[in-house]
Amino acid sequence: MHELLDTIRAFDGVLELAPREGSALPEISWGDHFFYYAPDGQVPQREQPYATVVTKNYPGDTSCDLDAPGRWRLNIHVGRDAFAELLGEDPRSEGAARDYTVRDTLLPHPVYRAHGWVAVNNPGERTRDAVVRLLREAHGNAVRRARRRRNTDA
Fold first, then answer.
1. Cα 116 from chain centre
2. Which of these, 26, 51, 64, 82, has the minimum number of CB atoms within 10 Å of its CB?
3. Nearest CA to 8 among 39, 50, 46, 42?
4. Is residue 153's pLDDT more than 80?
5. What is the pLDDT of residues 83-123, one digit of tens each?
6. CA of 75: how far to CAs of 23, 40, 99, 116, 118, in Å?
């Protein structure tokens, strides 16, 4: 996980939220990582993170069994078109039955697939190149959205 986090942290203008015990953020988020494009260091008010790393089950999101020791999941917003291209399914459809506990395999996000999110449990050798490419693209998309917002707000 540390190598992947270092890769994301190296992107220009990235802002990482990594809530820890005692922070003002909800306890459920402690130990997880949320990545935004925010060169000013401020969490964007109208923007979701473009990637997250979660280390535990969340309410309503238990199919990946992230409470098991050593398990974690990378989530990337790729958009609906890229989702369909990558997984061969419309993200808004129910999709094929899957084992969401499989590791190192690109999967639809078990909760946010309809919004164009993909997930990988414990990314490794099989998914490393694809994951880095998707993260770079997600970051680039976040940069473009921020620039459009800035031009619209001006």
1. 11
2. 26
3. 50
4. no
5. 999 999 999 999 889 999 999 999 999 999 999 999 999 99
6. 23, 24, 16, 10, 6
